[in-house]
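Re: the multi-chain job from yesterday

Posting the exact lines I submitted so nobody has to dig through the queue logs.
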Amino acid sequence: MTRLYEGMFLLDNQVVREGWPQAKARVTETLVKHGATIVSARRWDERKLAYTVKRKNRATFLLCYYEMGNEHVAAMRRDFDLSESVLRYLMLSCEGIPAGEAELAAAEQAADFTVPPPPPDDAVEPQPVAPQRRRDDGEFVVPDLDALALEDDEGEDSRPRGRRPEARASTTEA
Amino acid sequence: MVHPRRPPPPPISGKFCDDPHLDYKDVANLRRFLTAHGQILSRKRTGYCAQCQKELKQAVKRSRHLALLPFVA
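And the result, structure tokens for all chains:
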């Protein structure tokens, strides 16, 4: 029984640096070898991984949609498990191809489509700037405690604290 | 002495969850339903029904498998 599958493959950036068509072909050829019909295959993203996978911190994601029978899935999984260029993969059965997926895959087939070379594995992504706690000269920014105390005095309530005199008198009578 | 119970924070997803659009590739959306340590929020916090909460769980676990989201942050 033929089904439509969605596959996401994490490719080693070292393989991608040798050329994106060759890296993509490593996955698609394995799919075709096991009787799959490629509907679309495109580069999804290149990003830093949330944790280290096979000693790699970054990977390129390849998103594929393909049709194949379920009798070859186990053998295909074994091939991807043994592959060194595929760090990790996820294969799901899906109902249909999302809208716009075919256009994105066709855009990758264009002659002027180029994949930027992936950054080095230890590249640091720019982080959002945190609020600065130190001055540029290395000194701590100490708040003006006297000014804060004056502000507190101005806002202080001038009413006397404690119990009311009449209430105290009633308690003494009781 | 009985302490008054603190009211729970409002749910993230709103009142209705008919079509939550949860996909394992939509990492920015899934991060809204995780704690700072990467744990999935409870139904009380997400506001999802049981079925949608299961879809959220499945999407987060798929993202974790592909190293798009951390298991522990």
